[in-house]
Amino acid sequence: MGLPFPVRTLHAFDVLHLIVASLKASTFVLFWSIILLFLIMISLAMVMSFAIEPFVTDAGNDQAVRMMAFTYFGTVSKAFVSMFEITMGNWVPISRFLFDRVDPWYGPAMIVYRCIVGFAIIQVITGVFMHETFKAAAADDSIMITQRKKEMEAHVAKMTLLFAEADTSGDGFLSYAEFQEIVEDPRVKTWLGAMQLDVVDTRQVFDLIETDGSHDVAGELSAEDLVRGVSRLKGNARSLDLATALQKLRTMEEKIQQLSDILVSLDLPSKRYTTAKPLGSMIPQYV
């Protein structure tokens, strides 16, 4: 059954929310980008207007060409619009006109300008905008919650598909034999590896999933166990997992210390110790 229309609508507005959040986060980047490009283009506009002036005022040049040159670079404002077009729009017509009808040296000059400003600087500004977009997406709580929910839904769907393929008996549970058969398939192993779950020891993975599972029958996994277990085991060790393990070790150390204190407090001089030596180990025993 599909999602209700309001839910689908809310999901569709996630993209709009991301755009608005990115624009808000990129306000200063936009401001300084405009200032930088304006200074570059107005400076080049003044240079081009001054450089074209002798050609426009020379009566020996063709009248139509002089008028076209004046249209593009006759004043600083006209030159600024032309530089904006060269920077942001179709730079070829103006560059070809300067190269073919005014002076061939304008051709290489326009190419250098396009490489430095139209390619390098614009691409750097675009990269900064993308960086700010990623920062906005990472810092926005609602976007993070939505993305995490989508990841979990995709994970549940994949594990449900894996469970359905592995449950050859059709009883709704996975035995170790069924789990081993599906997991040791090279395609499935590669698929799980792509999800950051490298299955080296099938028995160990099965036991780890079963240990934290909710199914009461030993040696079987439910679909819920598989979903939760794979989600917990995939990827690198998380700080929470390491902290939990460290806490358990500390608790065990405290209990061992308490047991050691109790044994030390028991004064049993009449007891004799013998040593059993299975496989070369030394284990003290009371007799």
Automatic annotation (TrEMBL):
Entry annotated with the keyword Transport: no
Assigned keywords, A-Z: Calcium, Membrane, Transmembrane, Transmembrane helix
UniProt GO molecular function: calcium ion binding
Domain EF-hand, residue spans: 154-189
KW Manganese (keyword) present: no
Signal peptide: none
InterPro entries: EF-hand-dom_pair, EF_Hand_1_Ca_BS, EF_hand_dom
Transmembrane segment boundaries: 29-52, 64-84, 104-125
Listed name of the protein: EF-hand domain-containing protein
Record organism: Polarella glacialis (Dinoflagellate)
